[in-house]
Design brief:
Shape: globular
Organism: Candidatus Daviesbacteria bacterium RIFCSPHIGHO2_01_FULL_36_37
Number of helices: 4
Strand order of the largest sheet: 6-7-8-9-10-11-13
CATH topology: Metallo-beta-lactamase, Chain A
Order of helices and strands: EEEHEEEEEEHEHEHEE
Protein name: Lactamase
CATH superfamily: Ribonuclease Z/Hydroxyacylglutathione hydrolase-like
Number of strands: 13
């Protein structure tokens, strides 16, 4: 499976036979450019919540199945579990709800945390289930910040951690950079990759942090 980051919380997961795009954004809202139409073709299109930097499902090309909230789904051999959490640390009083998705493609489970605003409860962890890779917001302001993100990583115990929702060139929002999260995780400077490719048998024994370039 290939994992490609388009900026903010927008990712493409490319399996052998199935592709999923999560949290496509509106360019005018974020200041970021969407990828070219050929990169926006997917079998599944998912949004974690309705804010405009996460909910541009109409941008996704092809006959995609839309997933917009909690539940269990199966599409073309891809299993998806959506679990309801909150967008803030006050039980949704400030920013409402957010759905996290555990997506299994080619035997690898990828958890997209959307705009998570808090550490996870035991009940939420049980609903989510085992996780190989976590896509986690780290920029603070509207989501968990670097220290809380590191706590969530400890809760989930994934093999791979890919930070998202942090400050990059062109983004309109006042977020922290990824360096604060890397410091919290005890890792030095990491050379960003344009995509991350992984198979089940190549997952590391110990948690590894991967930083992606926006493409």
């Amino acid at each position: 499976m290939d994992i490609i980051w388009f900026g903010q919380a927008m990712f493409k997961l490319k399996g052998k036979q199935t592709q999923a795009i999560i949290d496509p954004f509106y360019s005018e809202f974020t200041g970021l450019k969407l990828p070219k139409p050929s990169e926006l073709i997917a079998d599944l299109a998912l949004k974690t919540h309705d804010h405009e930097d996460h909910s541009n499902l109409k941008a996704i090309e092809g006959n995609s199945v839309k997933i917009e909230g909690p539940g269990e789904y199966e599409v073309k051999g891809v299993a998806v579990t959506g679990v309801s959490v909150f967008h803030d640390s006050k039980n949704g009083e400030e920013r409402g709800r957010n759905t996290v998705y555990n997506i299994e493609i080619d035997g690898v489970s990828v958890l997209h945390l959307g705009d998570l605003g808090h550490t996870l409860t035991q009940e939420q962890l049980e609903e989510i289930g085992p996780v190989d890779i976590v896509l986690i917001p780290v920029g603070g302001t509207y989501t968990i910040d670097a220290p809380v993100a590191a706590q969530v990583v400890s809760q989930l115990e994934p093999k791979i951690v890919i930070p998202m929702h942090f400050k990059i060139d062109g983004l309109k929002f006042p977020l922290d950079g990824v360096d604060l999260f890397l410091k919290e995780m005890g890792v030095g400077s990491i050379e960003p990759q344009n995509k991350f490719s992984i198979t089940k048998d190549k997952l590391p024994d110990e948690t590894q942090v991967i930083v992606l370039n926006k493409v």
